User: Fold Ribose-5-phosphate isomerase A from Candidatus Propionivibrio dominans.
Amino acid sequence: MTQDELKQAVARAALDYVVEGQIVGVGTGSTARLFIDALAEIKDRISGAVASSEDTKKRLEGHGIRVFDLNDVAGIPVYIDGADEINVEMHMIKGGGGALTREKIVAAVATRFVCIVDRSKLVEVLGTFPLPVEVIPMASAYVTRELTRIGGTPVLRDGFVTDNGNLVLDVKGLQILDPVALETRINQIVGVVSNGLFACRPADVCLLGTGNGVQTLTLD
Ligand code: 5RP
Assistant:
């Protein structure tokens, strides 16, 4: 199976986690886009969605799915999103598409986080994929120096501005042995909006697309 077919399989499998009559939190990226297209087929069975990016909002609305402002919903039973890397502890690197901050906010509100990835995203140690860090523009040089001090090599994502009007530094060269500690440490650098480590709030379920079908990984 191709990588696209594996993404398609997990996107469809995620429909089983959508709660009837409720709001769905929706992530960003190519796998999330496939999920949105699948969600369109059952759109009459949900009350609507909360989007983690402008791109996702546009695609949901294009399918006629009502998009709610996060401030107008009391809760989100499930958030469904892809990842750039995930380990067996359900810690992830996200933000390849630059939507990390809004993704982290919607994930924080959600009761359950279902991560949908193809097999290539499952890793033993996080950090081969450069860690995205969203920064306030005036702090980018300072944050670059601080990230270098902790052993990374930050590279400014060329010509990219987030939905929040900020910049992204992609940090190469990190071997992330303690994701919770590193997520917390980077968040303490003044000028950082958020970072792409999703370890303090890991996924609850990972739907992993493999050549032998969709595998379900959980922490239990
Ligand atoms: C976007 C993300 C995506 O979930 C991540 O980049 C994976 O994307 P894809 O499904 O295209 O491989 O975090 O900010």
About this structure: The longest strand covers residues 110-118. The pocket of ribulose-5-phosphate is lined by residues 27-31, 81-84, 94-100, 103 (CB under 6 Å). The first helix runs from residue 3 to 13. The radius of gyration is 17 Å.
